[in-house]
Fold this protein.
Amino acid sequence: MSWDQLLFMRHEIILIILMLVMIIANLLTKDENKEKLIHLASILFFANLIAGFLPARYGSAFGSMFVANQSGIMMKNILNIATFIVILQSGEWLKKEIENKPRIADFFILILASLIGMFFMISSGHFLMLFIGLELATIPVAALAAFEQGKRKSAEAGVKLILLSTFSAAIMLFGLGMIYGSTGSMYFNEVLTNFNGSALGMLGFVFFFSGLAFKISIVPFHLWTADVYEGAPVNVTSYLSVVSKAAALYILMVVFYTVFINISASWTEILYIVSILTMTLGNLFAIRQKNIKRFMAFSSIAQAGFILLGIIGGAGMGMTVVMYFILIYVFSNLAVFGIATSVYRHSGKEKIRDLDGFYQTNPRLSLIMMLALFSLAGIPPVAGFFGKFFLFTAAASKGYFWLVLIAVLNATIYLYYYLMVVKAMFINQSDEAIDTIQSDFPMRLSLALCAIALIAIGFIGPLYEWINNVATAF
Amino acid sequence: MEQIITYILLALMLIFSVMTVTSGRILRSAVYLLTVLVATAAIYFIMQYQFLAAVQITLYAGGIVVLIIFSILLTHHIEHRMENPVFWKAMISALAALGAVAMIAWVLKDAQSIQNVAGFIPPKMEDIGMALLSYGKQGYVLPFEVISVLLLAAMIGAIAVAKPALLQFKNKNFKQDDQ
């Protein structure tokens, strides 16, 4: 162990420093000046984002409890980008709500803490680290979900998230205990060699999977999603649905491909059933939703089902397409949530029906929303199409044609409900259309970033190649 | 003799954990929980896991239950009785729980105990202390430190949720409304 090895943890260390800086800055600012902390946090986080892209070194530290590899660092950078966009989008909400004012710094501290947890989880080489990272990623978000003190629904969201995630964490911990009992170790590489598929180990694996599936909100474990997404502040919802979900999906994929590769036949069967359930139920429930946050909750459940399709594709191709899809999913979802935030901030409305005639008053926002929804639906010129296409290819390359057929049928269902929103904005007429929205600069910047990324990612061929190189080098 | 005590303790744990979740009075639940936790500590002692037993008593029985009782006394009326759950819901939950117990018991029946796995060394107190501060293989200093971040974040989260909006801000707000 040397100082060099400590540098493998560069991403995490920078974030911890940022968190401490925010705590100290919070102490040093007077209550009237708290708004300035928003700028401080945005600038510092931008610096962190840039620093994340500096060339990194790969290796393991702390007796391979912490493993920094290329794909993990790429995932951390993706999460950094997503969190940066969330921070840009939340400035307005933090400033305008009077009750938020004394707690502006808390918001950033909690976001950073949860991101630190995700980073440790992504880099874990030991189940204990994975578990602690997962908890560190969840507990601050539960506090964030209950951030709006005046609202009952926000408190309800916080309580639901913390209680249910405790429950799922307990199940996961029980599973980890069983895995330890059957293998005698919790290091990833030792579990890999000692795992013999005994009944005890398999049950442990299933419990472990259930715990992670809860965080990703895969179908039998999805019941918390809609309520929490609806009750939490929009910015927290977007963080939950994008950053939390992406991190958990990544670690699920890594654990499946490295630790449990010997029982891939078993987990493929599980994923097969679960992904069909997730896609179909998510879609069917999304059609019925009227609230845009609930709608996005179920649509994100359906999207997770599609990502599982990519995981079934197996290491190599599967890894590439999943990371590529997550990258696109981040931008699409954040664009939709950004617009939902602006709409809610300026009019207090969050029903899909309220978007009627949105194009007449807010043409640019409508266009970005349309791009994002097209990307989620997978309509060709936008990046989402390529993501979906590669996911289907990955599953088909393994010969799961029935699965791909069901996925395509599902794709048509959600094409329908995404287009319903587009129709509401562009075709429906309304006398009470939302007034023209003047967003502040960070919000506009974040939406522009999303829009550019949505168009560009699909057309930059080298990007896919690059992700492919990273994923296969893994 | 040891076996008899173990079985008595296990039976106690079972009975009291069922009572914890079925009791309608929340303070009683907390006391039943305390019994479960102490019995768990006793089992650790029997299994020669002194460190774990000490942690169990100081942290869980000593710390957490006291905290729970405190928060009950601060927020709730003790007389408050929880409503009985709907019968069919209780039945379904009981069925699910029994099913899970049956499945786990069936799996554990054939499982090899951990002592038989090669390379198992019963932990000594010094070893645990060294492992918590060691950064090599089988060292746990990193999770130990990350947990400190977790606790810090949890504390800040609790404050953020509980902190009332400052009075001066409220007053300012009202004044603006008046004007």
Summary: Helices of chain B lie at 2-22, 26-46, 50-75, 87-109, 125-133, 141-162, 167-178.
